[in-house]
Specification:
The complex is a heterodimer of chains A (208) and B (179). Chain A is of the alpha+beta class and 208 residues long. Chain A is 31% helix and 34% strand. Chain A is built from five helices and eleven strands, in the order αβββααββββααββββ. In chain A, α2 packs antiparallel against α3 and α4 runs antiparallel to α5. Classes of the chains: A alpha+beta (208), B alpha+beta (179).
């Protein structure tokens, strides 16, 4: 019995070590993506923060987008197209604490996976051509372009952008976002599953 | 044997827990305010833009001074966020031969006037109505701010908002006066 004690202790230590290490990995995995919901509006958000890359997607109601672009001079039919294209308020940031690490990202490489289809996001270049074809005013086109996240970004430490991103899916659609970024020439990949475009609902104003 | 294993295990757990605390605390901490050096220090493109009062300002008017050039829009949340700190920095720097210009992209004087009722600022707000200047300066997203040396070279940039009246940033800007 005495001779067996060290072995049994070793087994316990090994088991505990494995369990602690496993929980550490789970913790790290869970901390990569955070899901949120605004208690006041019910709008959902998804946040990725890993390997020095921070990406946050917040749902925008189609009505919010319609109103935003209508007040910037778009005609009603065009605001309808923009409003129902699955738009998120988005923040992208270099979250590294190492000032020597520059981050770049090219949104043309990102993919939207919904059901059996895999497609690109709708980026500044797509929209600019569409608005030109639809003869929207120059001031409206400028506002739209700069309201969207840039297609290609380069961030040093502390740098970030905040803008809209659109995914070209009907309201209420669900998709997985496959994204990538680069650091010192090395490509990193990330994925956020089950992102949901906001439903096209028209909430009642709060009671007076 | 039992004692030594216990010690090893305790040390292991302590190290592991400490690493978790460090990881957790580093996620939310405030990062030091910094401006990024611009490679090659290119010449700052000149412009001739109108302010809200109909006065035209050129970049070349300010040669010999450090100039802070900020690109912004009223609808851009981080642009609005940094405006109060820009005003506070302006109050500190305006008597130090340092200029601050905020170039609005794509909006008109009515929209800017409504904005200044909420965010009163005293430095010039000039208008790049056709976005030609922001393209010349190779800006990709808003807000973006450049710091131009007295020799007219772009020395620093910041993408996204900053606390412009922080000691670190004021020090970086002031050092350029000697260049």
């Amino acid at each position: 019995m005495k001779r067996n004690r060290p072995r049994s202790i070793s087994v316990i230590v090994a088991a505990l070590s494995i369990s602690v290490l496993t929980s550490h990995q789970l913790f790290a995995g869970e901390s990569v993506i955070k899901y949120g919901e605004d208690p006041a509006t019910g709008l959902k958000s998804w946040l990725w923060d890993n390997d020095g890359f921070y990406l946050e997607l917040k749902q925008r109601l189609p009505d919010q987008t319609r109103a935003y672009f209508e007040s910037r001079g778009f005609d009603q039919a065009s605001t309808e197209i923009a409003g129902t294209s699955c738009v998120f308020q988005t923040m992208m940031k270099n979250s590294s604490s190492d000032s020597s690490l520059r981050l770049t990202a090219d949104l043309t490489e990102w993919r939207v996976v919904s059901g059996n289809t895999k497609q690109s996001m709708l980026l500044r270049e797509y929209w600019q051509k569409l608005w030109l074809d639809r003869q929207q005013s120059e001031s409206a086109r400028i506002a739209f372009e700069w309201s969207l996240l840039p297609t290609k970004v380069q961030y040093d430490i502390n740098d970030y952008n905040w803008g809209m991103t659109s995914y070209g899916l009907p309201p209420g659609s669900q998709f997985d976002l496959l994204f990538s970024w680069y650091r010192n020439g090395k490509k990193y990949n990330g994925r956020i599953n089950n992102v949901i475009c906001a439903e096209d609902i028209h909430p009642d104003p709060p009671p007076q | 044997m039992y004692k030594s294993l216990s010690i090893v295990f305790t040390v292991f757990l302590t190290l592991l827990l400490n690493s978790q605390v460090v990881l957790a605390s580093s996620v939310g901490k405030n990062i030091k305010q910094t401006l990024t050096s611009v490679a090659g220090n290119p010449d700052a493109p000149d412009f001739n833009l109108e302010d809200q009062n109909g006065k035209f300002l050129k970049m070349s008017d300010f040669k010999g001074k450090v100039v802070i050039v900020n690109f912004w829009a009223t609808w851009c949340p981080p642009c609005r966020k940094e405006m109060p700190s820009m005003q506070r920095a302006w109050e500190i720097l305006k008597d130090e031969d340092i200029m601050m210009l905020a170039i609005n992209v794509g909006e008109d004087s009515d929209q800017i006037f409504a904005f200044t009722a909420e965010y009163p600022v005293e430095f010039p707000l000039i208008m790049d109505t056709d976005s030609s200047v922001i393209r010349q300066w190779k800006v990709r997203g808003l807000p973006t701010t450049f710091i131009v040396s007295p020799a007219g070279k772009i020395v620093y940039q910041a993408i996204g908002d900053r606390d412009w009246d922080s000691a670190e940033i004021l020090q970086q800007i002031r050092k350029l006066k000697k260049k």
